[in-house]
Amino acid sequence: MHQFGDYRTYFETKHLKQQQIDDEYVNWDRDRRADISGGDIQPLKPIFSGCVVHVNGHTNPSISEIHRLIILHGGKFISFLSSKGSATHIICDRLTPRKKIEFRNYKVVRAQWVVDCIKKDTLLDWTNYRLIESVEYGQKRLDIGTAEISNEEEAAAISSDSDVENGFLPLTQQKEQDGETNGLAEDDEEVADAMRQVSGTGEKTVLDANHPDFLKHFFANSRLHHLSMWKADLRLKFFRRILKMNKSAKPKPSKRVGENAVIMHIDFDCFFATASCLNHPKLDITRDPIVVTHGRNSSDIASCNYVARAFGVKNGMWVSEARRLCPNIVRLDYDFDSYEKYSSEFYNYLVSYDIFDHIFPVSIDEVLIDATSYFESMEGDLAANVAKLSARIREDVFKLTKCTVSIGASHNVMLAKLSIRKAKPDGQFFLHDNVEQFLDPLSVKDLPGIGHSITEKLAEEIKNSSTSDVKIRELKELTKTRLMSVFGEKTGTKLFEYARGIDNTSLEIDTTDPEAVLGRKSISVDVNFGIRFETIAQLDNFLIRMSKELYSRLIALGICGSSLTLKLAKRAEGAPINPPKFLGSGRCEYISKSSRLGIPTNDWGIIGSELKAIYRMSNVPVKELRGISISMTKLKDVDTIKSSRQMQLPFRKGRGMITKEPTVTREHNKTPAPTNTLTKEKKEGVTSVLHEQFGKEANVDWEVFQALPWDIRREIQRELERRGLMVKTYSPVKAPLGTKSYMQQLIPTQIGSAPKYVRVLETITKSPTKSPSKSPSKRQRLSPIAKKESIYEDTQSYDSSILNELPSSVKNEVIKDIEYKKKIKDYDMTSLRDRITRKLEDSKAQVSEVSSEWLSAQSTLRKLPVFLNNKVTSLQMQPLLSEWVEMSLSQKGPHQDDIAVFAGYLTKLVSQNLNIALLLLRSFRKALAYHQSLLDMNSSLSEQDRGFLMEGIKDWNNNLNAIFCPIVEDYCVANNIDIDL
DNA sequence: GCGCTCTGCCAG
DNA sequence: CATCGCTGGCAGAGCGC
Ligand SMILES: Nc1ccn([C@H]2C[C@H](O)[C@@H](COP(=O)(O)OP(=O)(O)OP(=O)(O)O)O2)c(=O)n1
Ligand SMILES: [Mg+2]
Ligand SMILES: [Mg+2]
Fold this sequence. Notes:
981 residues, alpha/beta, 5-stranded mixed beta sheet, 37 helices, 48% helix, globular, disordered N terminus, binds 2'-deoxycytidine-5'-triphosphate, binds magnesium ion, DNA-binding
């Protein structure tokens, strides 16, 4: 990879340079024409705006001519493909079979297209110039059916082996006859090189989560991601709409339940299938069995039409299963843009009615409407009126979207949802009388909110035999008490009431709850696809990318959270290493762990560090990971945080702030993208503040510093180092092992006889484990502290040094490793040790040894002199405290003198810098939680050790809760600060 | 009885 | 090659206080 890394850099640089040259050329040309025409120039129409064009092989006109034409008309030209997807069009007059597959996801178009576009002065439909002719799909037997290149290419790819069985004619491709010799006779050597990059080993396609662009790529293609995002957007939009309407003093319709209420449930029929099918006029949604999917076997079917359903095909089913049921199934590609478009038409139409009491978006293709008032105000027969409105809505929506919707109506939400099942497809049904007869024969599974598990459990409860599906008629025979004892209070009641047609769900969105103003209670990023890691470093990188994704979403909403949860999917016992679905998660066991951050944040550095720390407490080997979810709860509005006493914190506002590396944003996100410019301004601002402070004193506001994005922090840190205001050795960037220096401060010479320090020697040494000469004495073994420091190197962001909660965890892991090495065979531990050794080698630092006497001398420490040392800043305390906790644990807890000293210190700190105080308390909790978990999972501890540790942890917790926490709490109460310890 | 964490369920 | 198994809310069990 290394050699290719350089190669790639070369290309990237070259790429950037070319854009500059292109821009210069465009300017030059404009000036030239201005000269010719005497200043009065007609700017060329930017017909290729948005196009990124790449030329492959020999073309007519030539590559250089195309290059010129494209850039003069507003397009971009790239002479190589740095990664898939960077070009929007590939211009090519000949295509080898190999290239055909390589370019399957591009719009491959003949050079004449460029010429004709300029002739017509407009961007012509590229499909008329596509290199490969459209496939005929007159017969519905075809296993394809899209006009998109990708499917044609698929067809071409499989034609050789399965054309007979699938019953379609291979494409006629005389072009392929040209073969390699002709097609690859590149006159542009650079292009050839670039192509080798793409097709060779150097450039990997986005496959698993290790690729830097995996998240972007994955989310761009994930239907479930789209569904979730659309839903959240809609909820927010309608929530805001209600807020606005309430403000404009419009009396909100009173809630009505019972006989009068009319709830309408409107839902597109097989939405994705119908919408995608509209891209293919030759297909008939009412006759051809159609599914929307990515792949051909273990790929999910997002939506299938009603023809396919007649065969037993269902949404969510795999293609292989569907094909078994219906061999002639036609697979179509997703078209998320068009789904969004149709949905938008639909919702705008509904809003324009302005007669409904409530409009409640359920999903992109589905709403619940409370039309009680409207029908109350109508004359005549209710059923007739409902039918009339339903028919009109269906008709109008079809005119707008060419998609059919169905409508179910009844007196409550549950019955409306059931009614629509009867209505579909392309129908309507108003359930108003004979409810019991309607319900009785239905399956319990049909009830909304009652899924597989509950149904199964109920089946066990009712019949002795399992699985046969329980009808509502049978459900009614169970008493409410019985249901509640089996399913719990809520679920039991729900089952009981639903069976009798009772449902009091209101469509009204509660805007009175102050918490509801945020529109949500949690926000999360989940990935359970493509998760395959070999090393913890890969995982760490991915966690950072996840954190950045979460950060962008928090920023987009202008919120922060103070509780973070990491959920891991671990390959289930007995599940195959490679599940049937490529890069899927397979059968998994789920483990979740949450952490209170103390104060709300959206900083990805903090989030990332925290996640790494949580993971390390999880005891799940990286190789076993199949999925990762992170989620923020206890959300707060950024403005609320700002106005509530913690103003000094530089929390980012709703928009316009972003770290240097722009984070992935959802493609459909309408929020204006934050700009880098603002970051720069911000950064300069911060730096100048810092300059002022330098003038006064070397008094860096660590609190502010801590809350900054890591890149800014690093910049400031460099500045501080330059000015000698920050101990350089605290920087893992420049001196990874340097933190040893504070160990020297921490443990002064007064203890014991002939103290031996951990020292970092600058000498370059290959093998740190074999350096007896530099050792003060005794047997050689790696210092746990030295190991700890080397771990820091794994993290690339500066925040990990100052903010990381991890140190104590990892360090203790290592200590445990050393102490109980013989007893522990844990996979993770071993790999951790390897990692450390390797890291030490990499860092080429030689660490001298700590004798066992020295270690035991430390554990008898009674005071931490650091408290008396004014030179140690508050933040630098953090790692020291972890040391303290750990040392004292072997003594069944901290010494009361130490507690008193720290309590005194804390009392002062709290008024000076609350944030740091909170951070320190958190360190304690973390360290204790970690030790606790070690204790819990390590069954090989001796009873004595266990007793010591248990007592120590208990004692610590008592001290923490009885002494330290009240100090902070009292201060906060006195100053009216809202905290969450 | 209350609040917290963790797990499971469900829908689109 | 494949494939793109997300996300948020609610309920319940279990635990500490
Ligand atoms: N397991 C699922 C369920 C749904 N969807 C997507 C595709 C669906 O088209 C869309 C809407 O979901 P519906 O439940 O409304 O299903 P359909 O619209 O496809 O069918 P119908 O509503 O006619 O039952 O959500 C999905 O991707 N995966
Ligand atoms: Mg639908
Ligand atoms: Mg739907």
